[in-house]
């Protein structure tokens, strides 16, 4: 495999803003989890359950959404061959998948059990999202290590792989937004958290940061200028050489 085309310079502002949003999201979710621990106290009030309750947003936002977003951006900034980009992409997606699975397990670990935590739109969307992500990663893993298949088949599957990857990433962000709304509504109605207080501002800012981040990541992934360059190179490599008489 040869080297893939270099990223267009027009993508630099998008990539930079995506990184800024990612850092802001990480700082916000860390601040929420560490500065407002009382909001994550479960009914049992045990230290172990508190740790699992705090770990859930950290794993799902930083480990799942941020890492999977970085895996998507790898194809836009990392220099080198396609195989190296694919291996880094696959490794990062594996880390994101492990974080997502463990993040869901932290919710099922509590005293309420599986059914007690599996009742809301957020929980259903989260399970569907991680399941789709697992299927997507497995398909990528098999495709990466089994390169004997016909190139035409791989080219036909690639658009569906890209679509499912971006759809799952968008679904993950939407799932996080429903979780933030569900948690904030609970805090404001049952624990008398001020709607204009600092915690409400942190959670709302986190939701806004996730929305901006997802937009930048998806924009970088479907950038028309980069895609047009990639298509031209692909067709130029696949065109048969002119025969001279």
TrEMBL record:
Example of a GO MF term: transmembrane ascorbate ferrireductase activity
Domain Cytochrome b561: 17-222
Annotated InterPro entries: CYB561/CYBRD1-like, Cyt_b561/ferric_Rdtase_TM
Transmembrane region(s): 12-34, 54-78, 90-109, 121-145, 157-181, 201-222
Protein's cellular compartments: Membrane
Cofactor(s) needed by this chain: heme b
Enzyme class: translocase
EC number per UniProt: 7.2.1.3
This protein's UniProt keywords: Electron transport, Heme, Iron, Membrane, Metal-binding, Transmembrane, Transmembrane helix, Transport
Membrane topology reported for the UniProt record: Multi-pass membrane protein
One CC-aspect GO term: membrane
CDD domains: Cyt_b561_ACYB-1_like
Catalysed reactions listed for this entry: Fe(3+)(out) + L-ascorbate(in) = monodehydro-L-ascorbate radical(in) + Fe(2+)(out) + H(+)
Protein name: ascorbate ferrireductase (transmembrane)
């Amino acid at each position: 495999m040869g080297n893939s085309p270099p990223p267009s310079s027009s993508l630099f502002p998008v990539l930079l803003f995506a990184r800024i949003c990612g850092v802001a999201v990480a700082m916000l979710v860390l601040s929420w989890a560490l500065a407002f621990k009382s909001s994550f106290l479960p009914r049992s009030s045990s230290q172990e359950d508190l740790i699992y309750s705090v770990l859930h947003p950290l794993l799902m936002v930083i480990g799942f959404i941020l890492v999977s977003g970085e895996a998507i951006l790898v194809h836009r900034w990392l220099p080198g061959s396609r195989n190296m980009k694919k291996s880094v992409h696959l490794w990062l997606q594996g880390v994101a998948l492990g974080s997502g699975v463990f993040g869901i397990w932290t919710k099922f670990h509590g005293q309420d059990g599986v059914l007690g935590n599996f009742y809301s739109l957020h929980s259903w969307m989260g399970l569907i999202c991680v399941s789709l992500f697992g299927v997507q990663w497995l398909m990528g893993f098999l495709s990466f290590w089994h390169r004997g298949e016909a190139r035409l088949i791989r080219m036909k599957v690639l658009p569906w792989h890209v679509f499912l990857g971006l759809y799952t990433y968008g679904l993950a962000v939407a799932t996080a937004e429903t979780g933030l709304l569900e948690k904030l509504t609970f805090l404001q109605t049952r624990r008398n958290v001020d709607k204009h207080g600092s915690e409400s501002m942190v959670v709302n800012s986190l939701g806004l940061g996730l929305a901006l981040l997802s937009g930048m990541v998806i924009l970088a992934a479907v950038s028309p200028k980069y895609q047009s360059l990639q298509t031209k190179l692909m067709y130029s490599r696949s065109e048969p050489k002119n025969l001279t008489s």
